[in-house]
Amino acid sequence: MKTPVTFSLSAQSIVNQALALSALRRAIGKPTDEGLLTSDKMSALRMVAKAAFAEIVLRLMRHVGDASINNEGPQPVTVNDESLLLTVALYLPADVTSAEQGVVRRLLEHATTMLTLSMAYSAADNATAEHYRGLAESSADRLSAVLKSSDEIPSSFALCWL
Q1: How many CA atoms lie within 13 A of 61 on its CB side?
Q2: Tens digits of per-residue pLDDT, 80-132?
Q3: Is residue 74 in some structural domain?
Q4: How far apart (Å, rounded) are the C-alpha atoms in residues 151 and 153?
Q5: Cα four-point dihedral sign 90, 93, 98, 104
Q6: Phi and psi at residue 124, in whole multiples of 5°?
Q7: Does any domain span residue 161?
Q8: Which end of the chain has fewer CB within 10 Å, C or N?
Q9: Residue 162 falls within a domain, yes or no?
Q10: How far apart are CA 10 and CA 102, in angstroms?
Q11: What's the pTM?
């Protein structure tokens, strides 16, 4: 049996991770300012994060019970940019532990962050954009496989198949 589990991601956290990864890329890779995302781009990155989240939710649609962005929709909630939440209810097996839910949440956040970076770099650096898109798709595919596997093999019988 499946139960919808709601995951709320902070758009600000996704932006912070994107900025950190951009800085690491610069520190480890090229010693120039080329391609560095900075905090003065936070508002734009939050907008991109919303689009990235929507794309990830669409990839997982068969496993989605509900999804929302708290400042959009028929009855938007007024929020400041820093408290923007991206929420999705995913159908998970009823016996999934809270620790396993944490892994699912982290994978969802990773996919959204990687796609945010891909979209941010797409206008200026195709190679970097494609690299991050590949990471986003890989995370979304792993998440989809986890959600799909619970359709095919009831989790309570999983050991019988090992």
Answers
A1: 4
A2: 666 789 999 999 877 788 998 999 999 999 999 999 999 999 988 898 899 99
A3: yes
A4: 6
A5: negative
A6: -125, -25
A7: no
A8: C
A9: no
A10: 14
A11: 0.84
